[in-house]
Design brief:
The chain has 357 residues and is mostly beta strands. The chain has helices spanning 2-9, 166-170, and strands at residues 24-25, 41-43, 50-55, 61-65, 70-73, 78-81, 92-97, 103-107, 110-114, 119-121, 124-125, 139-143, 147-151, 156-159, 184-189, 195-199, 204-207, 212-215, 234-236, 242-244, 249-253, 259-263, 281-284, 290-293, 299-302, 307-310, 313-314, 317-318, 321-326, 332-336, 341-344, 349-351, 353-354. The chain is built from two helices and 33 strands. The strands form ten sheets. The chain has a five-stranded antiparallel beta sheet, with no helix packed on it. It has a four-stranded antiparallel beta sheet with strand order 7-8-9-10, with no helix packed on it. Strands 11-14-13-12 form a four-stranded mixed beta sheet, with no helix packed on it.
Amino acid sequence: MTIHIIKAIFLVVVLSHVFSCSGQVKSKNKSSESQKVTLGKSVSKLDKQIWNIFQDSKANYWFGSKKSGLYLFDGEKLTQFTTEDGLPSNQIQGVQEDKNFNLLVHTGKGISKFDGKKFTLLNIVQSTDNEWKLGADDLWFANIDNGVYRYDGENVFVLELPTKDIEKVLGITASNTSYSPYAIAGMGKDKSGNVWFGTGLAGAFRFDGDSFLWIAEKELSRLEDGREPGVRSIVEDKDGNIWLSNIRYKYKITSENTYEKLPGINLSEHNVSIELPYYMSAVSDDKDNLWMVSFDEGVWKYDGEKLQQFIPKQDNKEILLLTIFKDKDGTMWLGTYDDGVYRYNGEDFEKFEVDQH
């Protein structure tokens, strides 16, 4: 079941206020800086399929769904935005904020800018000279068909990753793939500001503003048993090592164009049961612990020595997980395949419900 669902959702890139310790959330005082919106409709619940989570500079939460649009929680009320409000699609693949505090919403039909009053679909620039640059304020989005989008505050450029000899290095040919090996599965930035791109079959690429470092290893491509987990998440640990969607190995960058593969987590040393040691999403918390979300094997917390597993459940049924997000207070949130949103209460993950009374 796992690998079939992973393949099915592969091309959907996924990817605070003070809360009570119960499963419900209230704001003590509504922030005077809360974004004033005139669109959308008031709702009482989130959709079950919440695939990405974001918190803006004013501490508002935004929840992107698979097919029901975008939700805003401002600490008091929940508002839903759909194509009826100007979104180009109700499939939300990601949310970011630009330097001018506009919301950039990545949908199944393009990128839309929201200024608090209206959604505006951004024009795509077909760059003839492949405008690879790395500005401090640039935002990056996955483009399933053509690689990646780079938004510089004015234009959205279509970019393509460099072509590599993946047949020789990874044994991947165009004839034995059902999608582009370079299709983006995940993105991230390291502590030095370099941007990383994880692919479905071609490994991972780091762009430093001038050149690319290619990490091409078998564990980052098609596995020996035929599974294709993809490099969905990039996270840097406290020692500067890069973790690429698996716990078997970590990768140490030794120079601009070289790296060293190091052992990751030895599962035989931990009392944790993991069938597929690959994760969908990961973040580092304020104490430099790594939090990694697997699809159907829970959440793993790793402090460099101890590996702890959390299995969120609803009615004794394990929840299928897609993404993890750390808010401004350091609280961890989970977006799920079909059971809404979960929040960490300091001991475990519990269902997030909005209390509007």
